[in-house]
Amino acid sequence: MTLSARIARSPATPAVLSLVLVLWGIGTPSFWRDESVSVMAATMSFDELWRLLDDIDAVHALYYLMLRPFAAFGGEFAVRLPSALAVAGATFGVAAIGRRLATPQVGLLAGLVYALLPMISRYGQEARSYALVSAVAVAATWVLLGERRSRYAWYGLLVALLGWFHLYALLLLPAHAAVVVRRRGETVPWLASLAGAGVLLAPLAVIASGQREEQLFWLKVPGLPELGQLGVDIAGGDAAWTSPLLPALFLATLIALVLLGIWHGTRLRRRGVLTAGGRRQDAEAGGHREDLTDHREDLTGHREGLTAGGRREGPVAGEGPGRPSLAGVAVPWAVLPVVLSLLISQIHPVYSPRYVLFAVPGLALLAGVGLAALRRTPATWAALTALAVLAASAHLAVRGPANRPDDLRTLAAELSAQERPGDAVLYVPERFRLFVVVYGEPYRRLSALGPGSDRVWLVSRRIRGPEWEENPRLKELKRDFRKAGQTRISGAVRITLYTRRIPSDA
């Protein structure tokens, strides 16, 4: 095979594409309130960081520490760069897993699908831990699928790292269990590695259990609409669906490829298939008959091998002794974390689409099988091109300047243009101070609300009627001040100017 063909088949090819896609426009969208907390935590003193972690945010401790060198440079590009690099790493891993379990073509296609998903670009451009969680989940799965018994030491460390980045990502473990129980002699070392990971995670779990209410107060018991939101987010999020035709077609095409991948992978596992090494295994007989096939590859296709039934099948690996099938890995990976999160959330809400981002690689692997199952190279690449074209509008929407839950940059600019010397500020609730600090210069020029304040900027969420009487500061604001001008709203953050009814110097 030529050098150019090897490069085209390498897992690095989709990884580089994903990095280019994520870096495109990475600094354009404003930081939103969660990212503001990340920047603040990564730039505060260690004493202040310790107090923050001890109070509410211990689950993100490792991420904040990792982010510090990047946050020192300042700006959206630098702070979001770790997430972009994590997406590239996860894409490489998805392609490598597809290559290990099936063929180079399947790996390449799965990696390309993963890179093209708008949801992946969205969280690759966010200064939060979700992209890194996905990268570690992919790495842990890759190590699990190895053959050497010594790999379980590394696997245990990766599971611990996964939990330290996000505890709820441990919902990946039931999917791994579904793989391990079908591999002879693997259960005991797998459980031992989890025990070691549990020791490393125990301190975080103890602290985080006491912070659950503060962390997850915003989550509700999910139903079908919340499950549907995962599909919306995969296709680009709410901003992409303002014109729903293209995102809907993209999502429908992706689902069709995933279903084709499940069907094709299951059928080949039953009937005996061509493995990645070019040998034929008869899965029905459980034997080890091997017929060497022509395994020459080129840039665009992988020559199909004969199945036990004599018919040609697409290039998908089956489940031979000691090796799981791609479908046997990808289906639990894509399904179990989402289902378990929804079930747990009926009692203790923990479900959010971004919390199960680490399950998306399973979908990409299945879609890669579905593309390979089209058998003819032109059809495969035509389907992939269609997927890319349908995703284009969503990628543009994801990179819009205001395409975040809050546009804190614009709010800060408007405040800077209208504030006056001597203006005061009131945060309701007080934690909203953390949400706006990332563009904090206009806010730092404001003083605390006091007896001499004639103009007050209220930075708040939506305040309902009873709160004006229950909160002493709001009660004072309502009694002594009147609203002046329009409320500026961006997502959950509102900024409103109030002026004193009777000036303090009157």
TrEMBL record:
Gene Ontology molecular function, alphabetical: pentosyltransferase activity
Q: Which GO terms describe its biological process?
A: lipopolysaccharide biosynthetic process; response to iron(III) ion
In this chain, composition skew of type Basic and acidic residues spans 279-314
The leader peptide range reads none
Q: Which GO terms describe its cellular component?
A: plasma membrane
Give the PANTHER family listed for this entry. MANNOSYLTRANSFERASE YKCB-RELATED, UNDECAPRENYL PHOSPHATE-ALPHA-4-AMINO-4-DEOXY-L-ARABINOSE ARABINOSYL TRANSFERASE
**Name of the protein:** Membrane protein-like protein
Species of provenance: Streptosporangium roseum (strain ATCC 12428 / DSM 43021 / JCM 3005 / KCTC 9067 / NCIMB 10171 / NRRL 2505 / NI 9100)
